[in-house]
Write a structure and sequence with these properties.
Blueprint lengths: L1 H8 L16 E5 L10 H9 L3 E4 L9 H20 L3 E6 L1 H12 L4 E7 L10 H18 L15 H6 L8 E7 L18 E4 L10 H12 L6
């Protein structure tokens, strides 16, 4: 990941060169599992540099019931972005943040223009055993903290909450989707990070954590936000 950050700063795309620029649309960045908005500041600043109005998710540390994260925090950010810009908003989510982004896009297609996932295993839960252990720790904390406010199967694929219900649905045609994945991810199985639509799936080389700093990712994002049909 450190190498990817260094390379990013040495590439023209980071400075907004040789990529299409934005139209002032809002873009909400959603962090991955056990992370907060802070590590997405590079992408935030870059989006602002190329002509978008970026927003941090405002969800705090992504280690809580996704259904509560969306209803209590992320929906407020989406409402604010729509109000500020007067138009639909783009969502970009890294890892678990991408899964959350797809659920929100499915639930609120009238407010979402596109959803871009970075290494997000939204089609299954194949992951590194160490990550699975951390997931179970977070799950126990959620059940202890929220008790009756969450379902017994919270933070599992068996849960029947609105978050998973929306995630299981196909995105409407009005929402453009982009899935960026890496076969050298190292933490999640890249086969679960694809839509199955060759026009929406983009492979890059890099690490799971480094997808937030990968210059190839930035190039793809710039083209897809500007034109959903574009393939750089």
């Amino acid at each position: 990941m450190g190498l990817e950050m260094v390379v990013l700063h040495a590439t023209p795309v980071y400075y907004g060169l040789n990529v299409p620029h934005g139209d002032g649309s809002g873009v909400i960045l959603i962090p991955g599992f056990l992370a907060n908005d802070a590590y997405l500041m590079e992408m935030y600043a870059w989006l602002k540099r190329i002509g978008y109005r970026p927003y941090y998710s405002g969800i705090g540390v992504n280690a809580d019931c996704p259904n509560l994260i969306i209803t209590r925090r992320l929906n407020r950010t989406l409402d604010q972005a729509c109000h500020d810009t007067g138009r639909k908003v783009h969502l970009i989510g890294h890892s678990l943040g991408g899964i959350i982004a797809r659920s929100v896009a499915s639930a609120r297609p009238a407010e979402v223009a596109s959803v871009t996932t970075l290494g997000a295993p939204f089609r299954g839960t194949a992951m590194h055993p160490r990550v699975r252990e951390l997931v179970e720790v977070v799950r126990r904390q959620i059940l202890d903290e929220h008790e009756e406010k969450v379902l017994p199967e919270c933070y599992t694929a068996r849960c029947t909450c609105a978050f998973l219900d929306h995630l299981r649905k196909h995105l409407p045609d009005t929402v453009s989707e982009t899935a960026i994945y890496s076969n050298t991810d190292g933490l999640v199985d890249s086969n679960y990070c694809k839509t199955g639509n060759d026009d929406a799936d983009f492979e890059v080389t890099g690490t799971h954590l480094g997808l937030a700093f990968n210059p190839s990712v930035y190039r793809i994002v710039a083209h897809r936000l500007a034109d959903p049909e574009s393939r750089p």
